[in-house]
TrEMBL record:
UniProt protein name: UBN2 domain-containing protein
Pfam family membership, one: Retrotran_gag_2
Superkingdom in the source lineage: Eukaryota
């Protein structure tokens, strides 16, 4: 939501506003931030995006290890959902892999290909066999 979250002050205590409390100025500031983010996403290619996102704040070592553990768990249990197209499934998979890579945990291409092939449903068996 940007560097400046809409806030309210009650009895000298500053706290974030609930979305239903936003005024026109709050929405305008959030919209400007969204436009700025959109421009950046359009300008930065995928390789540059991965480099930039790997610089983001990772937290303490415990937080980093916890994130890695959670993402490895997601990776291990990864399957293609019913009625999900291959491109959506691959996007979900890529997000997990990129997040792990940014935290310093990576898998070889061979491991990634095997994982993708294993997570496909039975209806894909002829194609998987052919690959």
């Amino acid at each position: 939501n940007g560097p400046r979250m809409p806030t309210r002050t009650i009895d000298g205590v500053v706290s974030p506003k609930l979305e239903n409390e936003y005024n026109d100025n709050d929405f305008r500031m959030l919209q400007l931030n969204s436009k700025a983010k959109h421009v950046l996403f359009c300008v930065v290619g995928p390789n540059e995006f991965n480099r930039i996102s790997s610089i983001t704040y990772e937290g303490t070592n415990q937080v980093k290890e916890s994130k890695i553990s959670m993402l490895v768990h997601e990776y291990e249990l990864f399957v293609m959902h019913a009625n999900e197209c291959i491109s959506d499934m691959f996007s979900r998979f890529t997000t997990i892999i990129n997040s792990l890579k940014n935290l310093g945990k990576s898998y070889s291409n061979q491991e990634l290909v095997r994982k993708i092939l294993r997570c496909l449903p039975k209806s894909w068996t002829p194609k998987v066999t052919k690959i």
